[in-house]
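Dear U.,

For the methods section draft, I wanted the exact inputs and outputs in one place so we can describe them consistently. I've listed the two proteins in the order they'll appear in the manuscript figures. Please don't edit the token lines directly; just add comments below if something needs changing.

First protein:
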Amino acid sequence: MGKTRSAGNTEGLTAFTDVVYLSDKTDMPAEIRRLFRHKKVSSRLLPLDKYDEIRTRPDLVGTVLVDAEDMDTSQDLRLGRILESLERDNIGIILFTQRISRPVRSFSLVSSESSFSMPGTVESISLDDLWARICINLADRKKQNSGVTARLPVLTSLTERFWRDHPADQPQAEDAFVDGLKEQLHLAGLVQRDFLPSQLPNSEEVRWAATFLPAEWVSGDIYDIARIDEQHIGFYVADAVGHSMPAALLTMFIKQALQMRQTVENSYRIFAPAEVVRNLNQKMTGQKLSGYQFVTCCYCMLNLKTRQLSFARAGHPYPILLRKGQPPQQLETRGALLGVFDNAEFVQQTVQLEQGDRLLLYSDGAESLIGRLHDKEGFQYTDEFLALNDASITEIVDRLTEMATHRQVKPADIDDLTMIGLQLL
């Protein structure tokens, strides 16, 4: 491992760095600095708003420690974007969320078999355990002996055991295994689609549109549009970090765990949007899921009688209200990521809709089609999206879907894309 660099050095990455410490603080904690010096690992402190430097040169990064202590995640999408972008680059992440008032046991951290650690409840580990986690990430990243023997646990399937015991049959078995795996993924994608709405609740009052485009066979996105009773419709888009099978499995959990109402004997109680999101977060953190625990979500409830829309979000792109003759409007409300902080707060907002209004919910896979947040200018819509400002919700979703299927992007940048929208008639 390399030489320890100054903790305050925040210039661009020019050489391989074992540990990048992402934080809004001006310095690393003293015990962390001592650990790096004692173990002789190279380190660099990098502000959170400069994490894109890692994406520019991911080959120069061993592992990343994200210090989210005291971060106001309810007002900031940065944490979610950081975790998702680093996960796409296959960089091991360790997330700090809360300092513990104990000697040695200094941070809240949950060890897992995945590439990064995200706590649901506060659990502290010693600096020795932290060092072991760093070693695992570095060993996996650098593919060489880091001075400490560390290896991720391997789950062996029955097929792998057969290959080990019958090496002569391995080539033929591998071909059969790959063909079988492709078929299983294809079937898994069909099963996942069975959890989506079979039909949209169109009526004389409201028209719906939806699109669901997985990046691979299965998706890390999930959505639903459901009548709660004769007067209310609940709908949401949720996005699990990453894509493919691990994220898709988490979407099945979300589908079952998200409850819009509670039935007691012959009566029922409708959950307010903030309550729906808060309950889902508590179920996720209480489950102590391994690996893909970070989820964004926006849940809305429409009152068909009053045309009031109530909504709450958890680190998700803001819903967009389109009103004829006016520029698109982001409906902003605070909400932390799901599955990270068990005591996260979610703020509910209500907006009065008018005849002809259209509302669009989408996952971050559609952001490049709709617009991007710029540091100085704020959120800027694309020209293509602005051209659809007066179109029907069906035309908007159809056009954006067509653009998504024909755009030229790098394979690493392909992401799941989900959109749902409504229009008051």
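Second protein (the one for the lower panel):
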Amino acid sequence: MIRQPRYTPQTRIDTEDFQLKFEQKDVSIAKAEMDEKGIVCYYQSPEVFADKGVQAWITETLEVFARKRVKERLVPRLLDMAKERGIDVKGVRVSSAKGRWGSCSSRGSINLSLYLILLPRHLQDYVLQHELTHRLEMNHSPRFWARLDEVCGGKAKALRKEMRGYNTSFLIQNN
């Protein structure tokens, strides 16, 4: 069985904070540019998408730009939320985790997945608030959910349920 390329010229990511699109252009090698909206990858012919190296390059490019965008947009939002709530955050790291949107260590560090930038803003905020709440409660007890509900307008469990509809491959559309 021949495995189809993950990315095609029709692949799109289109969220409030991050866009990925491909444009055919007279270029000698595939290249990418980032602007305020996201990434545009230029390619000379659709045949380049059959190359495993090009597929790997697209993933690496996506991750580099997504990591940059998380640092520019989500980390400052997280720190602002922490300040508003009077919560001390010892550090913030951006990881390439695909199975977790975020995590919080007992030492006060918060890890955010670079893929978090692909979610709608209200779900990004839910994850940020979720991890900040772990600075107060290092568990998922009723008290944790009550504290999270306070900052999520009583919708913490509904937002958790909505999050279950998302995963990193779902966000990358091949139309």
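Candidate sentences for the figure legend, describing the second protein: Residues 68 and 104 are 20 Å apart (CA to CA). Residues 52-85 form the longest helix (34 residues).

Thanks,
Y.
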